Amino acid sequence: MRDRNASQSSASGAVDVSSTGLYRSRTEEALRNILRNPVNAVLLSLLLAVVLTYPFLDEWLNLKRITDVIPIMMYILLALGLNVVVGYAGLLDLGYAAFFAIGAYTAALLTSPQSPLNLPNMQWFGNFWFSMVVAFVVAILAGVILGAPTLRLRGDYLAIVTLGFGEIVPVVFRNATDVTYGERGLGAIGRPAIDIGFLGINFDLGGSPVFGLGNWSTQLPWYYFFLIVGALAIFGLRRLQNSRVGRAWMAIREDEIAASAMGVNLVTTKLSAFGMGASLSGVVGAMYGGYINFVHPSAFEFSTSVILLCAVILGGLGNIWGVILGGFIIQFFDRIMAGELTGLLNDVGTQTGIEFLATIELGNWRFFIFGAALVIMMLLRPQGLLPNARRAAELKPEDQTIQGAVQAEAPGYAGPGIEPTPESVQARETLYDVRDQDDSIQEKR
Amino acid sequence: MSTQIADRASQADADVLLEAKQLTRRFGGLVAVNAVDFNVKRGEIFSVIGPNGAGKTTLFNMLTGLVKPSSGQLLYKTSSADVQPAFLDITGRPPHLVTKIGISRTFQNIRLFANMTAVENVLVGMHTRLSGNVVDAVFRFPWTRREETRAIDQAMEILKTVGLDWAAKYSANSLPYGDQRRLEIARALASKPKLLLLDEPTAGMNPQETATMTRFIKELQQQTGLTILLIEHDMKVIMGISDHIIVIDYGSKIAEGSPAEVRANPRVIEAYLGKGAAEVVHVSATPALGEA
């Protein structure tokens, strides 16, 4: 026992009992180690600097890519929301775009002049921030309502039901023409404005509608708006992950029966995962409506759900940084790489006279390429690019138990057994004393 | 049989923690557990034994709410104070509510949260004793922080009691088999149970490991005063540490009593070794008590 402790502390630092120490994920520990290397530290700071100042770089270098970068950020946010349901709670959701649609349509119905809710006595009508909050709440409710009938389902069956939900929602929006104008969609959706009147500042995030989209100065506020929401989402999700609720989600993912036997209420825990996952897509839906200024049902098809799921799986289920990377790669390819590569291949084709290359349009091949990429990933790195350390172990080919490592480090370790040590006996004696004095560790509020 | 139960009930009504009345479970045409009665007294090690397929695990699953009894009743004493009603009917309660009132269990085939760390497993075991919800988690209020810190301290303390504090940061599936068994016990202890149910805690262990596990269970009971309900296969384990034993065969209770009584019972010997063996032993053994 003492040997083990000694070797542990020499190998990886003493077992850290503080909450942050116990919970720091392996990715973040790896990140810390990487940062010790000055070259890496400089590179990562550069990356951060690029993210923070991208709109200015875009203008300065004349990239004209900001209208592609903002949707990339949007998809990353959606993937982060999906990750709560699929990565944390292990509930396979194939209809995630439905919540995105619900968020966007909620915002549209609350702000678009075409909306039937556009009545003279609606005081908050047209206010973007109000619609965003409502979209947030409505999406949570939608998540819970979808979650409720799926509580008894697992795996394939759950996927089928969520797939059905994902199909139903756009169909409803398409056919409820009195409210949503069907395929024509709703336009002139509200945009955020920060109006600090007494300072004389009226900072309109939106600028002019659709026609202004290519304009750098109207894009700039949107970029930072998405960046701030993204930062808040990462902040919140990381906290959720290391909380009582987050642990319960993961416990359900690992073993539902054991989780319920440990006191985890399966009903409320699953519903909270669905609700939290959906809430983020509700907010992003409202932002999407405001940004594109127009919603129509075709934007929320099954393919959107699938691409998001691809991003989550490609990056690494259950790992926030992995999901961000996965979402970025997929959307970067879709929106930027595909176009650039097509141009390149077409040029090569024209010069070499190869008909196939000269006319290829990689955008039409995107699903083929995503599919192939996923198959290759499953063969080479099934845990994703940046896996969740905990899940990675599950998929490792060799069983790398720590027994060997511990034995190597601690010659005194004789394998499993419960030889009582003075420490363990003493701990056992004090265990129930401590608890009897303080029956509950819940905070009294 | 009936005098036995009557004796136990009358002498120790105040001591009874859990009472099963005519507990029955049918799976289609099969009666897995058939009208089983028993009383578990506070602070004892109560063992359930029986040959393979006798219905022991189904019985356990009924106690913890994973399987609903077809008929019968389960009564659990919620507090030692004489508050009426002192007994709570927990028949068919969902598992998380059974855990909440102080019944916790381990599984025969280890069911840890494989990809979570040891300390996280214990923290999930504490679930019913913590209060943090989604809003608390995101905003991490001062009281949430305090609760979380205290929970982690206690989780480490519990890991120490099973000698696994060194493994806190390792994922459960990377631990050696025996350590996984102990981690499961630690996780069950984390809910602060009044009644701990251990489903074959020595399954798959060699004799040496079995001996240390047996000693561990005994010491745990002595030091904490916990009531332990034990399912076991291994007669040596049972006889060494049990205060009271019931024997189940083909779903029915065939014997009950102290280890010595059960050992001498011809029906038990018959169930384990066959009819012929029972006759041979019966002739040479002391007159059977309890079940006869």
In short:
Chain A has 445 residues and is mainly alpha-helical. Chain A has helices at 2-12, 19-23, 26-36, 38-60, 66-88, 97-111, 128-150, 155-175, 177-180, 216-241, 244-254, 256-261, 266-292, 302-315, 320-352, 355-359, 366-380, 389-395, 402-409, 422-437, and strands at residues 186-187, 193-196, 201-204, 294-295.
Descriptive report:
The complex is a heterodimer of chains A (445) and B (292). Chain A has helices at 2-12, 19-23, 26-36, 38-60, 66-88, 97-111, 128-150, 155-175, 177-180, 216-241, 244-254, 256-261, 266-292, 302-315, 320-352, 355-359, 366-380, 389-395, 402-409, 422-437, and strands at residues 186-187, 193-196, 201-204, 294-295. Chain A is an all-alpha fold. In chain A, the strands form two sheets. Chain A has a two-stranded antiparallel ribbon. In chain A, strands 2-3 form a two-stranded antiparallel sheet. The longest helix of chain A is centred in the C-terminal third of the chain and has 33 residues, at 320-352. Chain B is α/β, with parallel strands linked by helices. Chain B is built from twelve helices and ten strands. In chain B, helix 4 packs across helix 6. The longest helix of chain B is centred in the middle third of the chain and has 20 residues, at 142-161. Residues 1-7 and 285-292 of chain B have low confidence and may be disordered. Chains A and B meet through helix 1, helix 10, helix 11, helix 12 and helix 13 of A and helix 3, helix 4, helix 5, helix 6 and helix 7 of B.
